[in-house]
Amino acid sequence: MTTSLRRRLRRAAYCTGLILLATVSFLFSPAPRTEAEYCGTYLHLTSFAGFTANCDGFVYMEDARHPRHLLEPKEVRQSRPLFILLGTAVGYPCTWLVEALSASGLLPQQVIQHLPAKYQPLLGFYIGYVLLNYVVLLASMLLFAHLYYRLTDGQGNRLLLGAMLVFFASNQVTKAFFWTVHQQMFTFLVPLFCAWLLLEPTRPPLRQGRHVAAWACLTGLLALVYGSFVLVLPCLLYGFWQQNRTRRPAHLLGGCLAVVVLFLMPTLLWIGLLRVQDVTYYNHEAEAYHQLIWLLDAFRRPWPEFTRLVAENGYRFLETLPAVGLVAGLVLGVLGLGRYHQWPVRRQALTVVVGLLGLFAGFFAVLGYYQPRLTFILAPLLLCLVVVLLPPRPPRWLAWALVGVALSWHVWHVVSYGPFS
């Protein structure tokens, strides 16, 4: 076993330990007082422990159990077919394992019967989706660690990194959604993947046509897993321009058009497949919450109504910013160090991370649906900004101070009331 592989396995084991410690402790957080405070079913493990099974989860599990539901008109999860198929791929093996354990007596029937009736036949799919939550969260933490060491030329402080990883394992998103069936773990992966695409130490080569085509098609598939992956497209376009800007304008324009077409191709093919089945593509988020399309309606209104609507939505977005308040405070704390002007700033990395913060903040500001859990997508980028702004050799007291902040952050989330969905 190579040294590099052993290092990665140790890192994965550490991240797994953090995930388990944080998410298991959330099971003992205060339970909701009324059913009006959450959407779904609160499952009591004991008299003092439990978690919320989100109301969206039942549709995810039923669709994973019967993927043909995706071909039905106005199916709620029709815009995310690959996530449903991932649920199918892990759900059936988990179901077979549950059936085998039940038949052998290792899984008592009383455990299954303790569940609400509609969840009993879906237990394997529930377990499968929770495993997907773990995999996505673990991938996010490992990707952040990879970016951390690449940005610090392999000289990063491990204690600092460990403290920052606590913010991934413990937060309002993992508290409300890790133990349920949902897609919120992608909150961490999407912005970090975009940073990986653009930062000089990690960005993929986009100079040759076959590389451009492969990356555009493969990342286009991600948009069929989780909607926010659409933000990969502007990152690909910027990366292509950055690596080919010395070429002729015609080449740049043609390449950008090719990236757009190839990125959209998986979604267009999926829409085409639905049309073959005489089904009109349905996007539940756009239909139910008017995500993004509210802008089209707003532009048709008289100017006073347009400005009022934009101002209202802007204010609602600003109300969600406290979700990343502490992480933003870490950035300000690093900026406030007296010797900041004395150490070199990684300018390309600073430009990329600040640009991505603007891209993600702008996208979610115009989304039209505002929740703190959505705004928390800025937190991974703010942590990347902390890494970029840190001095090459941060003082040891800084690492221990961040450890104290991270542990206090976790304890506060464990003892605080909510969120539940």
From TrEMBL:
Keywords: Membrane, Transmembrane, Transmembrane helix. The chain crosses the membrane at residues 12-29, 41-61, 82-103, 123-147, 159-181, 212-240, 252-273, 317-337, 349-367, 373-390, 397-415. This is Glycosyltransferase RgtA/B/C/D-like domain-containing protein. It comes from Hymenobacter glacieicola. The lineage of its organism: Bacteria, Pseudomonadati, Bacteroidota, Cytophagia, Cytophagales.
